[in-house]
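Dear Dr. L.,

I hope this message finds you well. Following up on our conversation about the binding site, I have prepared a predicted three-dimensional model of the protein together with beta-D-glucopyranose. For your records, I am including the exact sequence and ligand specification that went into the calculation, followed by the structure tokens. Please feel free to forward this to your student if that is useful.
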Amino acid sequence: MAPSAQAPANTLQVLHWWTSASERKAADLLAARMADEGLAWKDAAIPGGAGIGAGKVLKGRVLAGDAPQVTQIIGASVAEWAELGLLLDIDGVASAGDWNGFLFPTVQKLIQHRGHVVAAPLGIHRVNTLYYNRALFARLKLAPPRTWAEFEAAARKLRAAGVAPLAQSSESWQVAALFENLVLAESGPEFYRELLVKRSPAAAADRRTAEALVRLRIVKDLIGREMEERPWPEVVRQFARGEAGMMIMGDWAKPELAERGMALDEDYGCAAAPGTARYHLYSVDTLTMFAGANRHRPAQEKMARVLVSPSVQADFNALKGAVPVRRDADPARMDGCARASWTIFAQGAAVQAPSLVHRMASDEASRDAIIAEVHRYFLDDRATPAEAQRRLGALFRLFNLRSQGAPGA
Ligand code: BGC
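The resulting structure of the complex is given below.
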């Protein structure tokens, strides 16, 4: 028998990728709330931002017949695992708790597969968040940039004052996150979906994709030599030390900044990434329950029920930097940054863009291939936008063939 299957029925092993100091605190809060309900949380945290490590470990464990009872699986990956018949349906919990009565419609869709609820939603992160150092901005008489042209102007002033304009890692997913922000700013959610959800070859060839790629290169040049391949908490530390004037990152950075003694609205300001104030580029966190060990089922269902409760939603998301998945959440309990996120998300699909990097837009294989392509373009200054567009277009045609089940695909 696999080791995790021998655990007592009320002990649930939870595989997730919340390993930074602040993420750890948020996970500990969940563990404590589980304990209040008589459930033991056995932690199986795997480092790696955006789940790069966790996904691999999960595959290995499932193949070895040792799936954890609970796993952070998000976005399109939920459907991929559910399609294999590996996820427990929690329809009973969702209907008894009337989840449809309070969940945002986008969240309802994300947790369903073939008409069954297969994930418990936790929180919504906003990926198009800009942080700026208030003391530096005041000293240099800068306003938070609302457009990419303003961003460039601010970056030049910071650079002239001897400060790195943007804290940024060259790690592939973090570069791709910058790119998806640029696509959204350049063109809005509709085109964003054409390019990154439908993956249309025409969108790859479009002028707007070229513009986002050109802008990505400009931003790289502005950042200059300070950029290294670093995990995201280190990028946050660079910003917190005042060594960079701005940072663009999902709002999980907020509690990590608090860990570093930075207070929102005092030491740093939070705004939408340039050109995206009206939009919400989202990553929704969800926990799925693995099917198989029936004796764990009552505990798994209880956990799902607790996760969506108003108090866990409010307290967890305040610690995590995200916002509740509930339409009936109380915005008065949120900081200004979170309130803006929750309010914009509540406007619905027309202003929402699913983050490719955080698996909201596409299956894992397509996501990985697109990220690799954008990263390659970013690292190689000789690669032209037109070449990157051609390569993306070729990838998209391949994906389309595959999804039509063409021979050899
Ligand atoms: C998750 C967040 C996490 C972030 C950094 C995202 O994919 O939604 O919960 O904090 O990755 O690892």
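In brief: The chain has a mean pLDDT of 95.

With kind regards,
A. P.
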